Amino acid sequence: MKASINEITIIVVLYEEKISLISRCLENIKNFKIIIVDNAGNISLKKKVEEKFKIYKYILNKKNYGYTKAANQAIRQCDTEYILMFQADALISNKDILILLESHKKYEDCFITSPTYYDEESKLSYNGGCLPEKNLKMDVLNLEGDVCVETVLGSVVLFKKKDIFEIGLFDEKFFFYFLDFELCRRITNIKKSIIQIFNAKVQHVHGHIKVKNTLKKTFIRNYNFTFDELYYFFKINKHSEIFRNLKKKLPNYIVKSIINFFLLRLTQCVYYFSKVVAFYKFNKLLNKNK
Question: What is the pLDDT of residues 11-54, one digit of tens each?
Fold first, then answer.
């Protein structure tokens, strides 16, 4: 089936990215309908972007609501059949986006199509694989064709609007991590397919938070990773061991946080503090669900 750019809305969620990175990303996808949600609420950035590119809708949030809530905001604003979730640190061509769309139309019971990832040196990078509860190595798939997988990274995924509404959108208790695993787990439970497409290529560097302030970056990464991991395994009733291990380490983390504060090792202080705060937030969630 022939694919058209008019069938897709591209959603880009931002938080403290530089205009140079955003411009590089948007230059490649500027012919598509684009919705941007900026969790940093940067009015100056919005003006700069809109001077250079035609943006269908540009949403400024008053605070950082996290990826899931911002993504759901944008999904509700879409009026095309297909949606491409896209992170600003990825580079993809029009041709590769249309390959994702054509593949989605071709495969029966397909929920998500996602491209094959390459790093900045054009080496194959990780995307598709198994769900984390299987505790298997996250090996890079060296494909010779399209392949069904249990999960893909949420950096670049294409799906139908009606499908994502039927399954319940992203779970907004996740902030940034494990949300792609959780969505893919729901998809596999309803016997729909998640397919990594061999001929659709994207350049993407994994795991880089663009926040400039080191202390803020340390807290955002470690607090949210700790809570999101616990919450993911809580949803499948496999959180007990992770929670117990964290609880055992808690007194040590508190002491280390205090010691590093007085030694002015603030990054280490914030690291341990973020783990403590995540524990208490998750414990509160546990108590609510008793």
Answer: 999 998 899 999 999 999 999 999 999 999 999 999 999 999 99
CATH code of domain 5-204: 3.90.550.10
Residue 168 Ramachandran class (φ > 0 left, ψ -120 to 50 alpha, else beta): left
Give residue limits of the domains in the chain.
5-204, 214-288
pLDDT, tens digit (0-9, with 9 covering 90-100), for 144-158: 899 999 999 998 999
Q: Locate 63 and state its tokens.
A: 């605070």
Q: pLDDT tens for residues 188-231?
A: 999 999 999 999 999 876 555 567 789 999 999 999 999 999 99
Candidates 10, 117, 109, 118; CA nearest to 55 is 10
Global pTM reads 0.92
Residue 138 to residue 127: CA distance in whole angstroms: 9
Q: How far is CA 145 from CA 36, 65, 105, 154, 196, in A?
A: 32, 38, 17, 21, 9
Cβ–Cβ contacts within 10 Å for residue 42, how many?
A: 17
Is residue 92 a contact partner of residue 156, using CB atoms and an 8 Å limit?
Answer: yes
